[in-house]
Records
---
Amino acid sequence: MKRPPKVAVIGGGIAGLAAAMRLRDRAPSGTTVTVYEQSGAVGGKLRTGAVAGSAVELGAEAFLVRDPEGGDSAAVALARRVGLSDALVHPATGQAALALHGTLAPMPGGTLLGVPADLEKVAAVARPAAERDHDGGRPLLGPEEDIAVGALVRRRLGDEVVDRLVDPLLGGVYAGRADRLSLAATMPGLARAARVEHTLSGAVRSALAAAPRPPGLPVFATVTGGVSRLVAAVAEASGAEIRLGAPVRELVRVPGGWQVGPDTVDAVVLALPARPAARLLGVEPLLDYASVALVTLALPAPRLPELSGFLVPAGEGTLVKAATFFSTKWAHMRRDDGVALVRASVGRYGEEHLLHTGDPELVRTVHTELSTLVGIPLPEPVDARVQRWGGALPQYPVGHVARVAALRATLPPTVALAGAGYDGVGIPICVRSGETAADDVLKGLS
Ligand SMILES: Cc1cc2nc3c(=O)[nH]c(=O)nc-3n(C[C@H](O)[C@H](O)[C@H](O)COP(=O)(O)OP(=O)(O)OC[C@H]3O[C@@H](n4cnc5c(N)ncnc54)[C@H](O)[C@@H]3O)c2cc1C
């Protein structure tokens, strides 16, 4: 009789853990799953810590509630699967702002990462060059074409929409620049629509209509007590053996399978950032990463605007590129003593040298800049924490999606790639990516 398979999941971020969970749910009974994680903890970019005694996210903070295809996002489904339905909470306010020349202007609604469907709606923060977005008698993009987000939006709507809206919004997610990031990788729905529609506003309308949100449904959710609870619950429920401090440096084909560290396994899910995954596969890495630092301040009774936070366009010249008012945004993070938790995100791709400064100096700079951006002097923090993420966010170049498909086509059926280095940034995307990789190796084994 055939023995039950052994599967290695390399990388214990949320993509790897979701793969392990899917293997638990769908692999033949008796399948052994081992997660190899190089660091001392699972979770990768998901990490909850403490500031002034409150649980605070030191990495990813929240996830989309809805899947673009409809229904729960993969992150919400996973949280429910591991018994955390009751721990899911939604922001008390979703209203964010843009810091523009000394004021905090409300972020316009009805855009796709800042690309407007209705040009009137963004007029208060950026004047679109409406005359450029004319119908040229053919789709904006060819059937397989990709383009930098900035190039497309500058061409169709002018520089202000990119510099004041799209670039800060993309910067908030990717710490990168619209002029370099691939449309197909960062906004797949818009890329699909742009292969059919003749105007950019038409393409945005069509992309928004393809993924309608039921009225009243919140956009984001998080887990009370922190996203590390989700990590721990998935690790536990997966039943996988979790090996910490276990970097995998080589993946060798051996008779009957793959050699992973001291083990021989039948199949492998590589849920690693692009560079270590490329090293194991003996290929060139597909992309580069931006490094960022998150600086969380605990401020005694500050007078903060009623906003979830704000984004700062690169042209404003601050180190701070985004701020989140945790205690305003999340009811569960409000404290009886009035101390408010505010997190600033610092660092854009290509500006890593600006992060080469000590923690106390970074805290001072962030505190000073936040006071200026908010428009009132903020009280001195009673606690502060700097979390640096080297190699944090993938910078998807134009053509990334096609290169990933080509790389996957070269892999043996018992090896699959998962995670943000390939399929996109964000907890739901990485969960889905891990689950798909698990399904793929199960197919390869059958
Ligand atoms: C600062 C920040 C804030 C974010 N905020 C949000 C947010 O609010 N909402 C959202 O949806 N997304 C957010 N994201 C994005 C999201 O967190 C990531 O896209 C996602 O967590 C990536 O998961 P992953 O499993 O692909 O990779 P990772 O989390 O990078 O996990 C990869 C794991 O592989 C391990 N590893 C590396 N090399 C080896 C090796 N050789 N052997 C074994 N293990 C190895 C690493 O230690 C790591 O644990 C944020 C990201 C960052 C950096």
---
Amino acid sequence: MANHSPKNLTVASTGASGAIFLRHFLQALAGDERVETVNFIASDSALRVMAEELDIKGRSNLVSQILGTSAAKSPKTASSKIHLQSNDDIGANVASGSYPSDAMVVIPCSVGTLARIAHGDASHLIERAADVSLKEKRPLVLCVRETPLNKIHIRNMFRAADAGATIFPLIPAFYYHPASLDEMAREFSYRVLAHLGLPQSQAFRWKA
Ligand SMILES: Cc1cc2nc3c(=O)[nH]c(=O)nc-3n(C[C@H](O)[C@H](O)[C@H](O)COP(=O)(O)O)c2cc1C
């Protein structure tokens, strides 16, 4: 997708199931020397789901809580590179097209956030940053998770894709025989990163 490695990424998390995918995605970014800056935004619903799925307690030290053990190994890298932005702050850096974000990923992306992006409802920072990505023709990857899908979801995926987003559903592969949920989520994250121009040397590669 990108013809150069993105250095400055915007990552958003919303209230869909799949917080483990966010954890592995952020861990990979924290450890990737090509990436200099990550602006991270979590909706209130994302926090609710993270509490269920990752046992995260509140917003304090949110990035470290999400990174888990890998933050303990490299706390400086994580805290200096990943900047938490408030979803209520529509005056944050990524709300403006003049800020040089190279790409944006919403992981996981709820169908509610998908709907707001697809309809240009930019009342919170996540949707505003996505709107900016589309208007500036920058990569926008939406890791949508819901099942089954109704026609509204399908229409909204089409609308977003038609406006330039990549619909990258949270659907992992199984042909590499993942031994754990962590391995499954890590490989999925690597696929998203490769799509953005950040291929990971540890990623599984199919050899026929
Ligand atoms: C445990 C839990 C799991 C959920 N899973 C999903 C899901 O997989 N997909 C989805 O679109 N919404 C899911 N929801 C509902 C969303 O969180 C809800 O629609 C919310 O308003 C989305 O807000 P946001 O888009 O601002 O983050 C879930 C909610 C909870 C509490």
